[in-house]
Amino acid sequence: MNCKELAYMLADYFDGSMDPRLREELDAHLAMCEPCMVFTKTYQAVSDKTRLLRRHIEYEIPPEVRKRLEKFVHAAALKYPEKIREYRDQVERDRRGKIADLVSAAAAGRLSSAIALLMESHCAACPECGEYFDSLRKTGTPPSVDPPDGIRAHVITLMQTLPPGEEFFLA
Ligand SMILES: [Zn+2]
Ligand SMILES: [Zn+2]
User: Fold this and answer.
1) How much distance in Å is there from the Cα of 156 to the middle of ligand 2?
2) Is 169 a domain residue?
3) Under-50 pLDDT residues of the chain
4) Which pTM was predicted?
């Protein structure tokens, strides 16, 4: 998970509706990213304040309006799992795109120096990735299929260790 994804998901995080696996990913990111930690604290303070304000307003809502409001909230809650699925699909599509870009850049020898270094040290320690990227460089053309799952997972981890906004290939 990167900083932007985290920011998107904070609302789910605080209302307790978040998928446990996502929550784990988010906690792991928070533990090692100070800017996100600070942002999360601010976010929580602001949303607590908003909730208090909302509670206060509710006392002044006439019953029939409140009934309509409850119906609306209920309908919104039903759509909620769908939204999470949409969000996850979007993240997955973005990820596949990024991995494909990285694999083509690696094949063409056009990785930025930061990611090239990370890849190099990872490949030295990981025979599976080492072999995959070696043969990629030899052929010089990206494969038409996604990398195998194991390699994919390592590439995702490598990309996540890059600082936010860091490009992984040369223009
Ligand atoms: Zn972060
Ligand atoms: Zn690997």
Assistant:
1) 10
2) no
3) 171
4) 0.50
